[in-house]
Amino acid sequence: MPAPTKTPSIDAKKPLKTGRKPAQARAKARVERILDAAVSLIAEKGSEAMRMSEVASHAGVPIGSLYQYFPDKAALLLELAQIYNKRIRAQIGAMLETIQSQEDIVPILSDLLDGYYQMFLEEPVARDIWCGTQAHKSLEWCDIEDSRLNGALVFESLKQFYPKSTWPDLKTRSFLVMQLTGAAVRLAIALEPEEGRLVMKSYAGLLSREFLSNP
Length: 215
Fold this sequence. Notes:
Layout: H1 25-45, H2 52-59, H3 63-69, H4 73-96, H5 105-122, H6 124-135, H7 140-158, H8 167-190, H9 193-212
Helix pairs in contact: 1-2, 4-5, 4-6, 4-7, 5-6, 5-8, 5-9, 7-8, 8-9
């Protein structure tokens, strides 16, 4: 009998090309111009239509310099996505720090979810960058890693309210919930606002039951 085919893990992905990291102030300023130009073009035409030659032209840098820092569009989108992810993670951490008791969990998670949804509604560039990373096979790990890091924040904030014996399950559930949150938000922003808000309200109810009925 032939051996079963092993499904490739996320760690088996083809490595993403990485460029040179700017060290000097002049190089850092150049990279900032590149990123600003990319954001401007994404706001104008979307990440799919953005071309690296246009980014170089808008940033006022030679195309060769652009490729030194970002070998391809996937690398550029990854950098932009990680900038937004770090900003969102800081906001998540700040909100979770306000949890003082188990009764605080549901309202604060609901506020966090609503803020997450509103941010992507109000910042179409962030939404387009996020969707752009979904379109690149080489970047699918970025979304998973972001959910893992956000889930770790949730776990560290909530574990004090649960028996230690349940911590392994709580950690996994926190990771899963943050990944599902991304999917719920993507669905909601693709719908008309009224239906999108209903989806987020329903998902908030699922979160409440998940963290209150599974101590």
